[in-house]
Amino acid sequence: MSARARARRAQPAALALLLVLGLPVLAAAHVGSPDVFFDGQAGPYRVMVQVQPPDVVPGTARVLVHSDPDVQEVALRPLYFETGREGAARPDHAARVSAGVPAFAGQVWLMEFGSASVEVEVRGGRGSGRVVVPVPALATARRGMQRGLGLVLALLGLALVAGAVAIVRAGAVDAIGADAPVPGRRGRNVVLFTGALVALSLVGGQRWWGAVDRQYLRHMYRPPPLAPVVRDGVLHLAVDTRSWDETHAGGFLPDHGKLMHLFLVRAEPGDDAFAHLHPVESPAGGFDSALPPLPGGRYRVFADVVRADGLAETLTGEAVLRAPAAGAVARGFPVDPDDSWHAGPVAPGPTQALADGSTMAWEQGAAPLTSGALTELRFTVKDAAGRPAALEPYMGMAGHAAVLRDDASVFVHLHPVGTVSMAAQDAFARRMGEASGMQHGALDASGVVSFPYSFPRPGRYRLWVQVKRAGAVQTGVFDTAVN
Question: Containing H/E element for 313?
């Protein structure tokens, strides 16, 4: 039984565990979809890992691991790019979801901001294996206190202060004896002094907490601004080389052989034009990409990059294309051979016709899609004669997919191995002094390509699924509703 099939079989128990743990359904990796997915090898074992990073730091990352049936133990521990395994916490053992189900759940603490990962170590009858899954340790939320709880705590604090003052006054008065002169005056002086001291302590505590809060706000993740500008058929992207914490990140790492994966989606009249481009570094700084002959309109821009420390980011912006632009290509501007685009209406139904006469079918199954549920997005490509299509590697993968919610609150770039960045995993592997272990996703002779994913929230989504045949990239477009 494959890891994906086991994941489907373990779905009910896993979802029950997630509800018990109180895992958030709405979260953030890419845009509005923070969960990290990895489907690959940990030594001799096939594992599918889902990590839900915390939205506040320090915080706990929840980890769900589907494994081969003969896996007996799973251990988890956090690793940071800056420190590696030196000084890392001891591994924590994950608990089996339920008897007879090859799935384990656990959590790890992410105590510091920065580029982090979760090391998954599995043990069983065939020995042991481990894999590092990059997980960003970034604060994306600031938790406020509920008004009712704040009122209760304020009343308890006042009672505590009043009690402390009363105790100090009683001690001061009793210490001088009942026959001593003016015990009442001494008691009043003690009350005033103690009250002033407590008030100063509260003011100092408030100022200290304000400083801590301001420091936390400074460390909250803010994607660097992306400023798309269109000139003479070239889209220029000014990308800040500083990382989210205002320090210089040392440039970018190529992921799938590209420094940037750029996605353009026409927002008006309704996500009907799409491009997957790979800009080159501009001599003036930033990135440049020749625009394909897309229809004019306002486009949403999503740019995937990986910092030198392994931190993967998706930068966002907007660009306006006035008319179909191909002038830069005519002038000899370099075009990446892996660039692809698609424009036109989407036909209803689970089967879409591709540009080369083949078809792509989404094998959704009978069960409706549900937010928060680990899902296998499985697509089958057949040639014009109805036979399984021969697929070629597309940037080292069997396929690529982009998922967009209709209000653009969710965007994610998927691969058959999940959402993890190959460049980030390779960077961590080099930092740990070992081989990456990342597999590019083997080609299926039956023309099948699949992607592990969990839709973060209900709504309507559009999917662009890309495969390569006979040297040309083919794009299938699908619409779906998630309950």
Answer: strand 312-321
Q: Where are the domains of the chain?
A: 3-137, 147-219, 224-335
Kindly report the number of other CB atoms within 10 A of residue 286's CB atom: 19
Tokens 């191995």 identify what position?
Answer: 417
Each residue's pLDDT tens digit, 139-188? 888 888 888 988 998 899 889 888 888 888 787 777 665 555 555 676 77
Backbone torsions φ then ψ of 408, nearest 5 degrees: 65, 15
What does CATH list as the number for 3-137? 2.60.40.10
Cα(124)–Cα(262) distance, integer angstroms: 41
The dotted CATH code for 224-335 is 2.60.40
What's the confidence (pLDDT) of residue 435? 59
pTM of the model: 0.80
**Residues in contact with 322: Cβ distance below 8 Å, sequence separation at least 6, in sequence order:** 230, 296
Could you check whether 3-137 and 224-335 share the same CATH topology?
Answer: yes
Strands (E), 333-470: 340-343, 351-353, 359-362, 375-382, 400-405, 411-414, 448-453, 459-469
pLDDT digits (tens, 9 = 90+) for 404-435: 999 999 999 999 989 988 888 888 877 777 65
SS3 225: coil
Mean pLDDT, to the nearest integer, of 7-11?
A: 42
Give alpha helix (H) positions in 139-296: 147-175, 183-219
d(CA 121, CA 132): 9
d(CA 381, CA 3): 22
Q: What is the pLDDT of residue 304?
A: 92
